[in-house]
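Researcher: Sequence recovery benchmark, item below. Answer with residues only.
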């Protein structure tokens, strides 16, 4: 089962360095504004480009898109590909929820 997390939880995890954020929106969406430190890995190419070994063990993997749907798909792909017990999370509401809470985005 994939756990949804809220904006405040993600913000805290990013500040403490305990999570890696993967933005699965398309390149143009990412370029228009993204959460500081996010890694761009579009869902359209995700199944062929994602490599679980590229991410540090022991860190939470948080997936994010515009509203939460595509990132949940990415979470499910990771779980199917890796059969891992690693911590995989979905940002509920995506970057839209992040911005609605007044959190910064960068270009």
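Model:
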């Amino acid at each position: 089962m994939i756990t949804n997390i809220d904006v405040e939880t993600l913000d805290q995890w990013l500040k403490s360095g305990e999570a890696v954020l993967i933005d699965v929106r398309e390149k143009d969406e990412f370029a228009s504004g993204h959460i500081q430190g996010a890694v761009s890995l579009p869902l359209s190419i995700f199944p062929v480009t994602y490599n679980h070994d590229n991410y540090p063990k022991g860190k939470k993997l948080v997936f994010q898109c515009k509203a939460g749907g595509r990132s949940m798909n990415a979470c499910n792909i990771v779980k199917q590909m890796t059969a891992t017990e690693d911590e995989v999370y979905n940002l509920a509401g995506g970057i839209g929820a992040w911005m609605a809470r007044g959190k910064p985005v960068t270009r």
